[in-house]
Amino acid sequence: MLLLKYDEAAQAATPPDPALFEEMAKFNTAMVDAGVLLAGEGLLPSAKGALVSFDSEEPTVTDGPFAEAKELVGGFWILGVDSLSDAVSWARRAPFRDGERIEVRRVSEPEDFEGIAPPEVMEAEEELRARQAQQHG
């Protein structure tokens, strides 16, 4: 997974150049043409979101913007690649401005939890994934 991270306040002060949208479309098209893009979306500013905190018995909800956050996730891509090196290679091609960063992370798979999670939880997870595939397949 590629996670776009940026300083939301700094971005608000300098809106993106319209050419960036064309560059982003080319970047996304290249990933689709290569057969590696599984999903990807941009996220709206935190002012249009909420933060759910689990600091007490009951979760608390705070409406955005998240002024205390220095760096926020602004979008993501999920790639189907063979290695971290391949994912990093794609991340390096992203058409971003100064200050933006892409965090590259591997999405966990059920086998990552074998021997850790109880067998009945693993079986239930497998059933959930099959149901999800049916619903969205």
UniProtKB/TrEMBL annotation:
<dbReference type="InterPro" id="IPR011008">
    <property type="entry name" value="Dimeric_a/b-barrel"/>
</dbReference>
<comment type="similarity">
    <text>Belongs to the YciI family.</text>
</comment>
<feature type="domain" description="YCII-related">
    <location>
        <begin position="2"/>
        <end position="109"/>
    </location>
</feature>
<dbReference type="Pfam" id="PF03795">
    <property type="entry name" value="YCII"/>
</dbReference>
<dbReference type="InterPro" id="IPR005545">
    <property type="entry name" value="YCII"/>
</dbReference>
<protein>
    <submittedName>
        <fullName>YciI family protein</fullName>
    </submittedName>
</protein>
